[in-house]
Write a structure and sequence with these properties.
156 residues, alpha/beta, Rossmann fold
Amino acid sequence: MELKRILLVEDSINDVELILTSLAENNLGNEVVVVRDGEEALDYLYRRGVYRLRREGNPVVVLLDLKLPKVDGIEVLGHLKRERSLRTVPVVVLTSSREESDLAQCYELGTNAYVVKPIDFHEFVDAIKGLGLFWAIINEPPPGSLPPSRMNQGIK
């Protein structure tokens, strides 16, 4: 059985470590691909640059920070939701921004969820565990989340 991939777009090393640890504590064995800026996220999603040879299939969910170097998260979200082959990929904005304008813009662009990173360590861990459990295990991913050869075999 092939586990569903999660794409984590986060530039904070501390947040990446905390998110990966939280997912592991929930016994989620999903592959988590970590990219550090918006440009790298787009390269991964469009299979270009260093990711041109990555295996086919979209991630089961994108965990997307907003405040990113090179290309910000709102722009990445816009690309995802405008691109026919990517628009069904669930996107969870995971940010420290409580700006109402960010919240409104993300929902207008089509985000599936907007989660403000809790400041408290334990709340943050619990939030990530819940997100991982829902998006990687409970939620049925859109078509294209797995390579076509796997889908034809009925493997999820």
